[in-house]
Amino acid sequence: EPEVTQTPSHQVTQMGQEVILRCVPISNHLYFYWYRQILGQKVEFLVSFYNNEISEKSEIFDDQFSVERPDGSNFTLKIRSTKLEDSAMYFCASSGRTVYNSPLHFGNGTRLTVT
Amino acid sequence: QQQVKQSPQSLIVQKGGISIINCAYENTAFDYFPWYQQFPGKGPALLIAIRPDVSEKKEGRFTISFNKSAKQFSLHIMDSQPGDSATYFCAATGTVGGATNKLIFGTGTLLAVQP
After folding, report:
1. Minimal CA–CA distance to A104: which of A91, A114, A115?
2. Option in A31, A42, A108 nearest B101 (CB)
3. Longest distance between any two alpha carbons in chain B, whole Å
4. Res B5 pLDDT > 90
5. Where are the beta strands (DSSP E) in A9-74?
6. B98 pLDDT tier (thresholds 50, 70, 90)
7. Is B41 at the interface with chain A, CB within 8 A?
8. Do residues B31 and B51 lie in contact, with contact meaning Cβ atoms separated by under 8 Å?
């Protein structure tokens, strides 16, 4: 069964550094998402991406965050200058159609630790 | 208004018993309510979902009960098995100010099924 793959599984970085989290969505999917989960807390929406542009973003997704689909297969989340509070598990997800019509398929996540 | 409240935070059930997890929402524009299951080290995976035009949906041992007037929905796991031990998240989405692909997740319920 096709799956969403994320790399790396764990990233440790120092405060103020830039990080790029990488994702390969399921190949025929059209909608792409980033969510994050702070340890022991709920899963929070960050951004959705469709037709090569951001379709929706949350208040968490400020100017320090950006997303890109640099080629036909990868989908990346960049955090320009990391803060301690960015420490979380970041999940990439994709879907073939809107959330109403097809399930979100999540990757296994990248655990980001900011020291 | 964007929140989904989930209870209990954790639940211990004996094998063969019924697990019940409850969620409540305030925003009447929500019109799609999925449940996600998450195993340790994995991303959430869609378990079952319901729309408000029905009061119940059953898939195998999993049933969603939906009470539109009370703005509540619940997940029932019949004949609970140790393999069901996981974290369960309810979620909601709807046309809040226009079409959206954003899922609002509850805080999660850690279910442990004892053999």
Report:
1. A91
2. A31
3. 47
4. yes
5. 10-13, 19-24, 31-37, 43-50, 53-57, 65-68
6. low
7. yes
8. yes
